[in-house]
Amino acid sequence: MHRIAAVAVPPVLSFDVSIPLMVFHSVPQYEVRVCAARPGPMGTVGGPDIVVPYGLEALAGADTVIAVGSGGGEAPAEVLEALRKAAAGGARIASLCTGAFVLAQAGLLDGRRATTHWGMADDLASRFPAVDVQPDLLFVEDGGIYTSAGAAAAIDLCLHLVGVDYGASVANTVARLAVVPPVRPGGQSQFIETPLPPERGTSLAPTRAWALERLDLPLTLTDLARHAGTSVRTLTRRFRAETGLSPLQWLLQRRVHRARELLETTGHPVDRVAEKSGLGSADSLRKHMAAHVGLTPTAYRAHFDRSRTGAR
């Protein structure tokens, strides 16, 4: 079992506490425990009270420790010490939303890139100048420590961690169970400044769904614009407004993700994976896998072959 300890630090949103439970409980290999400095009933911000069943002893032996809550306030000293001890013991450390303030107070973000909810990013940067705050990203990983923005971005980070542990195919299955979109990359912007109202018929979601079914084809901007019934210029503007990415950037990320799924779930040779994912050649696949994942296709497949057989 991969043991996860989610440390709730008041003030906390009940929704934030539920995110690790929702995502990781969908995978049988995870065991999730919600803990706090003082177990028992805990008030939440704008929601019902929750009952935290475990104390900080749950961090002992945890493989992943996730700080949740604090609202930017001061965390108990015993929580900070427990986090430092977990990090020193080799646990993977993460935070959701304002949980980044807890990690910063523990000194775990000094000299590292990190993010939090965009509305709290300036406060994080001013209070902790040793932290390289990235205010416009969904989630950030630096040296094995992960931080995320708020709400939906926290789900993205948890899904990303599932993908790190068990692959893109498992992460996408969890996303479908949670009825959320596939894993968004951490480099995507936190928020969309000028979203187009779907009631006016301007959403490009149907075009993206159409493209996902044709990733193996040489799709062009003209093809996408024709399907959307708009000009290439308008397509590009709307695409970036809705996803934070250009159409070609989005296509490349989806193709790399498809290649990962094929490497995990099929025995196709590398050149066939490149063809079916729309990346063209084995050389192109190797280049993009190295850039996006940090592994060659062969090494990536071998890693997840070991994961499936329990040799982690």
Helix content: 40-55%
- Mean pLDDT score, rounded? 88
Strand content: 5-15%
Largest sheet: 6 strands, mixed
- Overall shape: globular
Q: For the record, give the distance between the C-alpha atoms at the N and C termini, rounded to a whole number.
A: 11 Å
Poorly predicted segments: 189-201
CATH class of the largest domain: Alpha Beta
From N to C, what is the helix and strand string?
A: EHEEEEHEHEHEEEHHHHHHHHH
- The structural domain count equals 2
- Examine the coordinates and then state which fold CATH places here, giving the name of the CATH topology of the largest domain: Rossmann fold
In order across it, which strands form the biggest sheet? 2-1-5-6-10-9
CATH architecture descriptor text of the largest domain: 3-Layer(aba) Sandwich
Our Rg estimate from Cα atoms comes to: 20 Å
Number of helices: 13
Structural class: alpha/beta
Give keywords.
single chain, 312 residues, alpha/beta, Rossmann fold, Arc Repressor Mutant, subunit A, 2 domains, two-stranded antiparallel ribbon
What is the secondary structure topology, with strand pairs?
Blueprint: E1 2-9, H1 14-24, E2 30-35, E3 40-42, E4 50-52, E5 64-69, H2 77-88, E6 92-96, H3 99-105, E7 113-114, H4 121-127, E8 132-133, E9 139-142, E10 145-148, H5 152-166, H6 168-177, H7 205-212, H8 221-228, H9 232-243, H10 247-265, H11 270-277, H12 282-292, H13 297-308
Parallel strand pairs: 1-2, 1-5, 5-6, 6-10, 7-8
Antiparallel strand pairs: 3-4, 9-10
